[in-house]
Amino acid sequence: MSEETQNTAQLGEKIVEVLKTIFDPEIPVDIYELGLIYDVFVNEDNDVKVLMTLTTPNCPVAETLPVEVEEKIKSIDEVNEAEVEITFDPPWSQDLMSEEAKLELGLL
């Protein structure tokens, strides 16, 4: 593994840690465990792009949650730029939640 790949992987882990500090206001589980984060891309310039969804298109935090995600990722020293893209394809469902999230919400 090249040093660059290793640095990118470490940054990816830091990003996941930050994402786990952001909670959906309606569900007491972080957005990562909820399965709202579809993908995190980090390039060699440490530009980050997050592909995420919301529980519903008219989610009450549709305006603020992506901004919070972007701001928190930008707060990581190594991150150069951060961009959050919202998608509803595929639409979010409970199947995307981690076992931990399902357990937390009494779905298991």
Automatic annotation (TrEMBL):
Record-annotated MIP18 family-like domain positions: 13-84
InterPro entries cross-referenced by the UniProt entry: Fe-S_Maturation_MIP18 (IPR052339), FSCA_dom_sf (IPR034904), MIP18-like (IPR002744), SUF_FeS_clus_asmbl-assoc (IPR014291)
Gene3D superfamilies: Fe-S cluster assembly (FSCA)
Name this polypeptide is given: FeS assembly SUF system protein
